[in-house]
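## tool: complex_structure
## caller: assistant
## args:
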Amino acid sequence: MSSASGEAERREIDERLAGATIGILGGTGAQGNGLGRRFAAAGHPVLLGSRVAARAQEAAGHLAAEGLSVSGVANADAAAADVVVVAVPYEGHESLLRTHAAALAGKVIIDCVNPLGFDRQGAYPLAVPAGSAAQEAAAALPDSHVVAAFHHVSAVLLADPEVIEVPTDVLVVGDDPQAVALVAALADQIPGMRGIYAGRLRNAHQLEALTANLISVNRRYSAHAGLRVTDV
Amino acid sequence: MSSASGEAERREIDERLAGATIGILGGTGAQGNGLGRRFAAAGHPVLLGSRVAARAQEAAGHLAAEGLSVSGVANADAAAADVVVVAVPYEGHESLLRTHAAALAGKVIIDCVNPLGFDRQGAYPLAVPAGSAAQEAAAALPDSHVVAAFHHVSAVLLADPEVIEVPTDVLVVGDDPQAVALVAALADQIPGMRGIYAGRLRNAHQLEALTANLISVNRRYSAHAGLRVTDV
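## result:
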């Protein structure tokens, strides 16, 4: 791609993103809630979704009290946003997406689900028949543009209003170049983050599973680890 | 672990590593050769191994001409080193290890094999019945201490004598804490690198597979990407 067309493409993406509402399925969980905070701080109206709207309203109230544009709604209403983030627990992930497939059609869907199990030895990746949660989402949402990203951001850092910059790169994988570029640009809007293209959706599994390693890192070093890609 | 016992442990590891010879199975490949260069530059006598000793001797000659302590030998002789790195192609990995299991018994074995396939869409992880190449190695070498590490170091940077620092963290996984600590300390000896504990051997697969993503990063950004762990 020439530099000129790259700039034109970037301008088009910025226009698509400007003012876009971000819906978050699972917006009361730590990851979804933290991402909602950051997207709102970047200027997006955010719809935090939950199975129980009252719980979402309570969670949204804390962020709205800080002056952020965040509303709490049922997941069905969060699915009506311009761009939708899937941050639900892995259990029930696929059936939730099938339920909302019509509302999610034609949209960029960001799946950041990490299918992990935990036992006395720590975290480990669960076997996912589709290969990854992201591929499962793509199969459940054939008319959407599913992109996998935001797996490794520390929920603790996201949630902390004192943390202005979240120092981590966001590895973005997907098969639709425009959707991938939009999600990478969205990551770029969060101070400290960079969105980095890291392959096709078939390479989502190891990003999801790598969260198990980062949990080990966090335990060993008492850290809130993130990743930076060097030489990019 | 208290700070004092941490220091004592570190001293013991440094003593074990001081002057340790490093053998490299597959020392004529890009990754094995590049690691051999760096371990030799860090002061270790290195035995580059190959199925064909003459090829290893030729590869070692280039490094020895730079004043590095590197010899080329048959894989069987490289397996006699104090610490042995496995950097062979995935095909034949397991049978090679079974062949040399007796020589490798009781030792720290560093597996850095990435089981990847390539097609028109780029790289993707191969399905490995044992879960990962590292777990396959552990099954083939029940009397060795298998640690997985050095998957993501850029072979291009390793090979370049003008590159003094290789800016990447080395994620180290394994089930034997002393072996893990020794491999992390070995990574620390290479300028620019840090060895970071990243979980048990059952979490090796995603480190191996992540190399497919880094290949996509390298293609997209014309980079020699590595990884840094933030907040550690």
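## assistant note: Chain B touches chain A at residues 121-125, 154, 167-168, 171, 173, 196-200, 202-203, 205-207, 209-210, 212-217, 220-221, 223-232 (CB under 8 Å). The two ends of chain B are 17 Å apart (CA to CA). Handing back to user.
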